[in-house]
Amino acid sequence: MADFLIELAEDIELIPDRREVLELMVSLGKELDPLPPEERTDDNRVAGCVSNVHVRARLDDEGKVKFRGSSEAFITSGYVRALFTQFDGWNPEEFLAEAEPIVSNFLARTNLAESVLPTRANAIGNILLTMKQQVTRLIKT
C-alpha cells in the first residue's frame, strides 16, 4: 500500500515556512480531478467544511475502494487529493481499520491544522469521516 502521507509528512517537516506548506497543499489540490456536477449531491457533501467539499466512494471490479471528489477551496482540494492518493485502491475493511491512525499520525507530524484558519482545521478529519461513512455503506449493500 502506498505510503503517500508518510512521504508528504517528511516533505512538510523539511519546509520551515508554513506558507510554503500551504502552497504545497494548494499545488496538490490543483492536481485533483473535479467531481462532475451531477455527483456533487448532498449525500456526497462533507459535513462541517466551510467550502463545498464532495467525496464519492465506489468499489471497483476487484472490490477495492476508489475515491473521487472535489472542493471549491484549493487547500481543501489538497487535503482531498492527499487522502485519495493514500487510500485509493485499498481493501474496504483495511481502509476502515487503518485509515484513522495513519491520518492521525500525519496530522501529528505535520501540525497542518495549526497552519490554517480555525474554520479549516478540522477539514481533513471531516473528509476522512465522510470517506469512512461512504465505504461503510458500500460494504453493507
Short description:
With 141 residues, the chain is mainly alpha-helical.
What does this structure look like?
The protein has 141 residues and is mainly alpha-helical. The chain has one domain: Sufe protein. Chain: A (Alpha-Beta Complex), CATH 3.90.1010. 52% of the residues lie in helices and 10% in strands. It has five helices and two strands; from the N terminus they run ααββααα. The chain has a two-stranded antiparallel sheet. Strand 1 and strand 2 form a beta hairpin. Helix 1 packs parallel to helix 4 and helix 3 packs across helix 5. The longest helix has 19 residues. It is globular and about 45 Å long.
Which features would summarize this protein structure in a list?
2 strands, 141 residues, Sufe protein. Chain: A, mainly alpha, 52% helix, two-stranded antiparallel sheet
